[in-house]
């Protein structure tokens, strides 16, 4: 709108923090923008406006037709002094008192009945003048923060609260940092999170491992009544998942579980963090860090409320994580959702390659995680993984169970999108090195273990058995097909595959009615 107003120019309002070291770089930026055709309104405080008149002369802030100076009160008592104001007082005053005057100024600039300048197109505000957010939101104007210190200084400021929390955690309970680990409540997510928790415990962390109440009961059934007693510095806690109570010993309906955790788990989790940090009732260190499954982003609310660093642990491959982050791009390109007539099953459409995912050049639709295989744009799972993935950047860091040599291009692409990305796998290889019998005895299997298959495998020659991995709830048909092809070559292997598939059917049939 601003570029279409009285003068065909975009109009930028520049608002520096009112001290010399911030005004100078903002003024240089304003000059550069003016040189590129922008109308400029440069906003000083009334105090600094008077200082400029004293130092530069009465006509020094007359400006140009398209480069004007405006001022707002700084909120401190009036003064004729020609010195830098007290910085702590100035910081407190600008944050408390400058929002309304700045909003009024934007309103005045945009009042076409009295103003002869273009409508404001953009606000460029000093990074420590965040009261400008109120005006940007009120008037629907894009806001850019200009951090005048070095990039490393800006980054350091963003970590101050984390440093405070880390120090608080390290000085409590003998100096042990305290990590709260919360996996998505399904076996394939619980296992890697549990391995990570063991590794952190081995390195001196106090661990609180958070299961849903439903899975807590399943673990007690499969592992025994004392299986979750834990250790003095490795405890288990629970929160409700929001679904109706059930005594079933089976994986819950995944779409319903996803919808429920995202809607219902935030408050119980925040209450748990509050309880852990309540020194009057808790005998554990204050929580130093939350490690949350990448699809449990409701944990961001607790991290923000309590000022605790949050790390997302994406348990799929790095390429799976990157793919989720680009599902919306695929929709934007018209590649999703799939055609309702199911023609995509037979016409080769799934062979379509796309170049919109960095690090995965020309990947085919058939190679992407299967949540794209829907004809419904409102599909619960499609939208769930999209929304969860898009919130990943809000975490302090992201960790993945992979290693650089395996997915280097993917990790490079993720590193360009996210604040910090760490490859920490393969976790099992690291866990195998832990020499702690009590820790080794702790397990996370939701089903009672059946070691007969391991006994059978131990009798076979190295490299003589093929293991099939996959989501048994989604890819059963493909696994049957693979089993038939494998079985035609080796009778003994065919028997083993058939045993596996029979076991899988025992798990799947309850869902098929």
From TrEMBL:
Pfam families per the UniProt record, alphabetical: Glyco_transf_N (PF26168)
Q: Does the keyword section mention Secreted?
A: no
Domain Glycosyltransferase N-terminal intervals: 180-303
Keyword Membrane attributed? no
InterPro entries for this protein: Glyco_transf_N, UDP_glucos_trans
The residues forming a coiled coil are none
The entry sums up its family as follows: Belongs to the UDP-glycosyltransferase family.
Q: Which PANTHER family match?
A: GLUCOSYL/GLUCURONOSYL TRANSFERASES, GLYCOSYLTRANSFERASE
What is the protein name given in its UniProt record?
Glycosyltransferase N-terminal domain-containing protein
User: Which species is this UniProt entry from?
Assistant: Liquidambar formosana
